[in-house]
Structure formats: structure tokens, C-alpha cells
Amino acid sequence: MWTIRTATEPDLPGIFDIYDEQVLRGLATFETEPKTPAQRLEWLREHSTEPRPAIVAVEGGRVLGWASLSAWSTRCAYARAAENSVYVHQDHRGRGVGRALMEELLRRARAAGLGVILARVVEGNPASLTLHEKMGFQTVGVMHRVGEKFGRILDVRLMELHLDGGGGAGRG
């Protein structure tokens, strides 16, 4: 069985093996170039403390998946909001790794006092959409034709989860 913990520098190869597969062949990220070793270290530094950590699911020293919270915006008024990322190695999907990572990420977000978690899910990624819906995220809207990757013009669903008991516009 895997364990979930805060990501550390030795986890970076495993994290970016998973991420780079999507960078180079998938649609789960709109990045198109792998990060350099220096950029990977900077990413970890940006995600090394609450309220925006990076966490990993590991089994036998191998990273099975990872998740992180990132600033939604650098503008101070958005400090209560974060965007989530969850990635699972293709050999370990369907085992509950993504859900366990999401549960821990949301637990940490609540403990850190974040109010809203946002997600951008590319249309055509049913596993991510299903995971977010099961965790209570609701669709805010669809941003049409905002991305292009592998010659495809892509829509992105914007989703939100209110951790503070509040609701979005028109929901109280």
C-alpha cells in the first residue's frame, strides 16, 4: 500500500516522469516543454510549504502520483483561492491513488484556511472530471477554444470547491 507525504527533492524525478508524459503526449496539462532541472527545483520550492504544498503517493520508494496546490493569481486579493493539480502514473490509475491524493490535498487546504479550490479540466479528460465531481467540485463554466495542443483546439472546464461553506455567485 502507498503512503502520502510532502514531496521532497529526491521525489522530483518520479514527479516529472509522470508530468512529462502529459507534457509530451497528453492533454492534462497545457505545458508543451519539459521543465529543466533548475525549473523543477524552483517548482518544488514554490510548493514546499502550506498553504500550497506538493504531495506524493509513494510505494516502495516509487512515486505513484502527486498533487499540488498553486496560487490562483499573484494578486493579493486571491490569496484565499488555490488551483489544484493531481497526476497519477499511467500504471497506477484506477487504484484510488488520485482520490487519496485529492483527499489529503483538501485536508491540508482546509487546515491552512484556504476558502476555494479551483480546477481547470480539459474537455475530453473524463477521469479528472469524474474525480473532481466525486470530491464535490462544481462546474463554473467552460472556457471555449482557449488551448491548442497536438493540432487540436481545446475547451477547458473551470470547476470550484468551496471549503469555507460559502457558495459561488448566485448560490449564497
Tell me the strand order in the biggest sheet: 1-2-3-4-5-7-6
Helix content: 25-40%
Strand content: 25-35%
Order of helices and strands: EHHEEEHEHEE
Q: Profile the largest sheet.
A: 7 strands, mixed
Shape: globular
Identify low-pLDDT runs. none
Q: What is the number of beta strands?
A: 7
pLDDT average, as an integer?
94
Structural class: alpha+beta
What is the terminal separation in angstroms? 41 Å
Tally of contiguous helical segments:
4
Query: What Rg, in angstroms, do the CA atoms define?
Result: 16 Å
Describe the secondary-structure layout.
Layout: E1 3-6, H1 12-25, H2 37-46, E2 54-59, E3 62-71, E4 81-88, H3 97-111, E5 116-122, H4 126-134, E6 138-149, E7 152-162
Parallel strand pairs: 4-5
Antiparallel strand pairs: 1-2, 2-3, 3-4, 5-7, 6-7
